[in-house]
Amino acid sequence: MKLITSIVWLLFFSLSQVSSQAPLPNKLLWEQIKNSNLVNVKNKKALIETKINTAFVFLSPECPLCKNYTPLLNALAKQHPEVNIIGIVPGKSYTIDEINLFAKSYDALFDIYLDKNKLLTNVLKAKITPEVILIDQKGNIRYRGLIDNWQAKLGVKRKVVTEHYLDDAIKDINISNYKFTQTIPVGCLINDL
Asked: pLDDT of 49-108, one tens digit each?
């Protein structure tokens, strides 16, 4: 039923866009993230280590794209141990047990948290699963959007991935004049239905 509900709320975006955005004040962003009341898969309030380069990946355990991207996220976690990759399941649609089952089923090598009241989701303005928001250690949002361009639009996948947005953004995160970039995520709308 949840899958059907998610499919009903799917958004179709076919084009990726790159634009610029003014970042939130650094201190405020990390403080907001710190106070997001996330719960880990052990159903305990989680304290995310702040002030390190972090990629928040918004996920849904039943979203086919999220399932398909988990191996790539595992590979990125191995390839970039200097960046904290964190999965976030927003809302009240899934239980801790369902999230734990997802993590085990796909051998997730990164931590996954429940954002039951969507505090972090709202702070970071995430709208879609999967959607990535990469934040540097100073609290600047450096990248927002797609993991790569494998999914041209919902139901249409490229045979060859030509853009590796998250990987590229992680590689460039310590470049001082690196600019914020954004792509429009493709996937399921975040909701609580």
From this structure: 888 999 999 999 999 999 999 999 999 999 999 999 999 999 999 999 999 999 999 999
Give which of 152, 155, 154, 150 is closest to 167, Cα–Cα. 150
Q: What is the b/e burial string over 108-122, where b = at least 16 CB atoms within 10 angstroms of the residue's CB?
A: bebbbbbbbebbbbe
Residues 145/57, Cβ–Cβ less than 8 Å: no
Asked whether 103 and 112 are in contact (CB, 8 A), the reply is yes
What are 120's two structure tokens?
Answer: 């972090």
Q: Which helix (H) or strand (E) holds 88?
A: strand 84-90
Of 191, 143, 146, residue with least CA distance to 171:
143
Helices within 80-133 (DSSP H only): 96-105, 119-124
In this structure, what are the phi and psi dihedrals at residue 107, rounded to the nearest 5 degrees? 50, 45
